[in-house]
Design a protein that fits this description.
By secondary structure, the protein is of the alpha+beta class. Helix 4 crosses helix 6. The chain contains seven helices and seven strands; from the N terminus they run E-H-E-H-E-E-H-H-E-H-H-E-E-H. The strands form two sheets. Strands 2-1-4-3 form a four-stranded antiparallel beta sheet, covered by helices on one side. It has a three-stranded antiparallel beta sheet with strand order 5-7-6. It is globular, with a radius of gyration of 21 Å. The chain has two domains: 97 residues, no CATH class; 82 residues, Arc Repressor Mutant, subunit A, CATH 1.10.10.10.
Length: 216
């Protein structure tokens, strides 16, 4: 069964419909443009909106089983689909695509290839992300703590093994450097000074997180 990658592409907000029909909602959607998830065995990935998943699940299931070409040539990539969530006020469009993977048999065959002193051997891939200084090392640590979650500041500080009294140290040594590298964003961008403000990784941050996880 293939894995399926889900990418949040774009959100459209109908402010006139919201003003006319919707009851006030402080925070309606946590999804950020560029976020990605991987569905394995047609399971809803952590952090993906359940409502959006309900809409896209039939397409994910087809792609996972190697079936595509929806609606007779709808997509340029036949093993993909563009699906919107079912929020009538602020729908998000998601691009979903099957991911080709090396078969287990091919992987085992590669591992079992005989090697000798005269044969060219394959070395393990070198880490692609080596922190160049202490500040970058702290930023990478913050990225690994956040991962695909949305966490408040107090939780992040605790997960970093810091004391809550170290708020200014956390901001100066972790939060600000990550922000300057465009790796994190507010979970509530419309109210940046919100007392219960939380943080999430940006698309760039998620890419860094994926690379760091591969290197662990």
């Amino acid at each position: 069964m293939l894995k399926v990658r889900i990418t949040a592409i774009r959100q459209t907000i109908y402010n006139d419909l919201i003003a006319q029909y919707e009851n006030p909602i402080e925070h309606a959607c946590d999804i950020q443009q560029g976020q990605q998830w991987i569905s394995v065995n047609v399971n809803c990935p952590d952090g993906l909106c359940p409502s959006a998943w309900d809409t896209m699940k039939p397409f994910v299931e087809s792609l996972a089983h190697g079936k595509g070409n929806f609606f007779d040539g709808w997509m340029k990539n036949p093993m993909s689909a563009m699906i919107s969530c079912n929020d009538g006020f602020r729908p998000f469009s998601f691009y979903i695509e099957a991911i080709e993977e090396e078969s287990q048999a091919a992987h085992e065959q590669s591992e079992n290839q005989p090697q000798s002193g005269t044969e060219k051997t394959c070395s393990l891939p070198q880490p692609r992300l080596i922190p160049k200084d202490k500040e970058e090392a702290r930023v990478y640590k913050l990225v690994l703590v956040l991962g695909k979650q949305v966490l408040p500041r107090r939780q992040i500080i605790a997960d970093l093994g810091m004391r809550q009294q170290s708020r200014h140290t956390f901001i100066n040594n972790y939060l600000r450097p990550a922000w300057e590298r465009s790796l994190i964003d507010h979970a509530y961008p419309n109210t940046p000074n919100k007392p219960e403000q939380a943080y999430r990784l940006t698309a760039k941050g998620l890419d860094i997180y994926a690379q760091l996880k591969l290197e662990k």
